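User: Can you predict the 3D structure for this chain?
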Amino acid sequence: MTPPKSSSSSNLSNIRRQPKQARSRERVKQILDVAEQLFLDVGYESTTTRAIAAQANVSVGSLYQFFPDKEAILKALAIRYLHMQYHQFLDLHTPEAIHLPLDSYVDQMIDVFDQFYTDYPGSRAIFEQLLDTITWSAIEKIDDFEYRVTDELARFFHARKPSLSLAHCERIAMVITKITAELLWLSLRGDHTFRQELIAETKLLIRSYLQHYLPEDN
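Assistant: Here is the predicted structure, written as C-alpha cells:
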C-alpha cells in the first residue's frame, strides 16, 4: 500500500512525453533503471541528470524529452513500484477468494504488501526520498493507486456481504487502507523482530475490525 502522504501541496508535471514506440519505451526503462541505481548508490542529491543520461547511454536532450527534471524521474520510479504493488494485490482477488475464511484473506492481503518491500527493497528508498523531496498530495497518479486499492477492497467486501451498501463498504475499505499503510510503513523503521511483531498486530487489528462487519457466521 502507498506510504503515508504529506499534508502540504505542490505542483508537479507528469512525464513530459509518453513513449509510444518500443524503442522509446525501452529508452525510458533504461533511464529509470539507471536513475534508481544511482539514487541508491550515491544518493538522490548527488545524482545529476547528466550522470543518469551518461550511464543510460542517451543524450541529456533525449532524457529531457521524457522527464523535465530529476523529481519527475523520482516520481516515475515511485509510480512504477506502485503499479507493481497494485497488480500483486489484484492477484489476490480470484473468484475463490470471496469464500476464503476472513482470517486467511487478511493474512494474505497484509502479507502481499509486506512481502513487496522484501522483494523490492529499493522501493522503500525511493518512497522515502519522494517523501523528503516532494509532497504526495500533489501527485494525482500516486493518489490514484490508493483510491484503486480502496475501491477494489470495497467491491470485494460488498461481494462477500451484499447486505452492506457499497458506500459503507467504501468507508470500511478506506479505514483499512489508511491504517494498513501507516502501520506497514512504520514496521519498516524497526529491526526484523519489530517488523514481524507489528505485522502480526496489524493483522489482528484488521481481522477484529472486519469481523464486526463481515462475521464468519453470516
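Residues 7-14 have pLDDT under 50 and may be disordered. The first helix runs from residue 22 to 42.
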